[in-house]
Structures are given as structure tokens and as C-alpha cells.
Amino acid sequence: MKTTPRIRREYWNQPTMNWWERMYLFEVMRGLGITGGVFLRNMGKWITGRKGALTTYYPEETRFDYAAGNRGKHILTQRPDGRPQCIACNLCATVCPAKVIEIEAGFDPDDKAHPKFPARFEIDYSRCVFCGMCVEACPEDAIRMVKEVPGLPTDDRSRLWLGKEELLRWQPARNAAKPYPPGPSGTGEAP
Ligand code: SF4
Ligand code: SF4
């Protein structure tokens, strides 16, 4: 009985190529043809002023049509008196897969209900993967992610650390199912 010779693959999804593809040169030419075609099509659209040729000139231009479920920035929720709701338990920092949250706990003996507070709370946005696990882990609903997008582009990585002050500068979004705590003025608005 005649059997077809078995091709041993080096890895499980290694593609099988015919002799034409194994020459590479033709495939390289084909790839350049596709790239050149897209370039010329976009250039034509741009010259004639039609839409679809260019993406947004970020960061000079900012898009506002992010998906409703987009979560681009963390916020620290606040108690009615304006202090962070966070009790510096470190659960969010522990669960963070990218290890980008750094918390330094402070102690306030006068606050009997919440003696521990975050003296320092920082997130490194250069490594955050926006997975939301910190939000899920928090037992106090003290950290949330909102639709806002922080101004990230920079040539200095150290600027990508967002500190407590920045995280507390939240944009309160109305959420009937899960409203923010009232602001210190008692107006129902967050500070
Ligand atoms: S969103 Fe994910 S990666 Fe970013 S700080 Fe939270 S847990 Fe860490
Ligand atoms: S944000 Fe939540 S999980 Fe993180 S330290 Fe504060 S209370 Fe704990």
C-alpha cells in the first residue's frame, strides 16, 4: 500500500508553503503591493478630502466617541468629607497582574472608623493593562475606572505615574445603579 510521506512540523501551527511561497521574493512583492495599494487609496482620499484616510491626530485631537464600556482612567472615590474611601488594604495592589499600584498606608488615630488611609497611592500608567481587576478586588468600592482618558503621551516615563491627587480629581458620572457618594457640600455632587 502506498502511503503519503508525513511532513514533520517544527511547531503545531507551522504553515505549509508551496514552492512559490518558499521563494519568498514573490510573497514579498505581493505584500508590498498590498501596502502600496492601501497607501495610494488613503492618499487619494486625503487629497480629495474624503473621510477615512487618516486617524485622529492624537494627542492634538481627542476623540469623544469611545465605547460606552471603555474604562481608561482610575478614580479614587471619596467620602462625603472629601477624604479617599480607600482603607489602604493593598488588595488592589496585590491582585494587579502588572504590579503597577503602589500604596503607602498612613494612620489617623482620630478617625476611629477608618484609621488607615492611603498616604501615597500611585498607579504607573506605562504598565497598566486596564484589566479592571483592581476595581473588582476592592472591598470598599474605593477605586473605579471611568470612561475618561488620561493625557498619556509623554517622552518621560516618570510622568506616567498618576498620584493620589490626580486620582481623586474625578469626573463624577451619574450612575443611578451605583451612585457616587455625595460631595462635601451636601449638594449631592461629588467634589
Ligand atoms: S487595571 Fe489591571 S493592570 Fe491596571 S492597575 Fe488595575 S489591576 Fe493593575
Ligand atoms: S483601593 Fe480598595 S483594594 Fe485598593 S487599597 Fe484601597 S481599599 Fe484596598
Query: How many β-strand stretches?
Result: 5
**What is the count of DSSP helices, taking H or I runs of 4+ residues?**
5
What radius of gyration results from the CA coordinates? 26 Å
Assess the beta-strand content as a share of residues: 5-15%
Structural class: alpha+beta
Bound molecules: iron/sulfur cluster
The top level CATH class name of the largest domain: Alpha Beta
Mean pLDDT: 83
Strand order of the largest sheet: 2-3-5
Identify low-pLDDT runs: 173-177, 183-191
Portion in helices: 10-25%
SSE order:
HHEHEEHEEH
**Largest sheet features:** 3 strands, antiparallel
The domain count comes to 2
Q: Any idea of the CATH topology of the largest domain?
A: Alpha-Beta Plaits
Description:
The protein has 191 residues and is α+β, with helices and mostly antiparallel strands. It folds into 2 domains: 16-54, no CATH class; 73-168, Alpha-Beta Plaits. It is built from 5 helices and 5 strands. It has helices at 19-22, 25-47, 91-95, 133-137, 164-168; strands at residues 73-76, 101-107, 116-124, 143-146, 161-162. It has a 3-stranded antiparallel β-sheet. The chain has a two-stranded antiparallel ribbon with strand order 1-4. A hairpin with an 8-residue loop joins strand 2 (101-107) and strand 3 (116-124). The longest helix has 23 residues, at 25-47. The radius of gyration is 26 Å and the shape is elongated. The relative contact order is 0.15. It binds iron/sulfur cluster (2 copies). One iron/sulfur cluster binds next to helix 4.
Describe this protein with a few key phrases.
binds iron/sulfur cluster; 22% helix; Alpha-Beta Plaits; alpha+beta; elongated; two-stranded antiparallel ribbon; 2 domains; 3-stranded antiparallel beta sheet; 191 residues
